[in-house]
Amino acid sequence: MAKWGEGDPRWIVEERPDATNVNNWHWCEKNASGWSKEKFKLLFEGMTIDEPGLAKVTIKEVSKTEGEAMINNRKGKLIYFYEWVLKLEWEASLYEDPKKEVKGAMEIPNLSEENDASEVDVNVSLSAGGSKGEQVKEFLRKKGYKDIQDKIQEYIVALKREYATDLILPTKDQATTKSDKTCINSPPVEKSTNINVINTTNNLDKLDLGCKISTSSFTQTQNFKCTADDLYRALTQREMVVAFTHSDVKLEVEKGGKFELFGGNITGEFTSLVPNKRITQNWRFRSWPNGHYSEVVIDLVQKEDQTELTLTQTGIPSNDLERTREGWRNYYWESIKRTFGFGTMLI
Question: Model pTM?
């Protein structure tokens, strides 16, 4: 629990131009599976492995890409997860007999963050080619596999240096630049083009276009050693909300009334209020896409010696589900119990 006047940076926003993911604290996730599959095709299809005097091997197709790749940002640290099984179809042109059909496959069963590129297995098989084909297979198994591992290293570097770059957001002391794609060593652009791009970006921002996002929901149940009236007041009386959030709040407790908590990081409005029984809200984090709100329903049920609270929240951006769930538990329910003595443990 933060001391009075101290704000947990996960729920209180410092100055930042975009007010998004302050200090890169929150868990951000980026799915790199689709990008990875395209990257494998670019890296492998058409590559050649040459053994002078024997054959030139060409990778014709990436026939299997099973697995996934995810990148997470937590507290400014990038965490990579990828696990792939790849199959590459190859053909060889023999120097002494170019017309002879020699072909096979290479399977990579353990491409993951647990293994360095040099530790990744490359299993070679032959489907046509006879005795000469066996020689090509042995060359690939003993020497040629290193070229494949080099390409795997290129994939790992690209995943970490190119695709994941925009997960680390600038802090308030750094310049913030809006970009849809991460570019490494971009060529210089004419000044007039820069002006057009900036104007176009500004115009798009003003349009406030919507976007489709994946959403999730959850339900929490908590018991408080107090009456339903006490708990309702703790959630709606400004002085009590200030006490358990340890920060100033804006609170208009009426249908359509606005609220703002934790330095403006949480905002919304009350959509209905049934004293001592139910509170419903449109609720959002400032970092969510512009205009996107979740729905919060808080039900209070008076029991014989306690009050049961059930929170149901729907429409949460899926990549923010865990932060939202933990935030309610840590910064609402546990704080309320400690601040007002509504804990479930009787002394």
Answer: 0.44
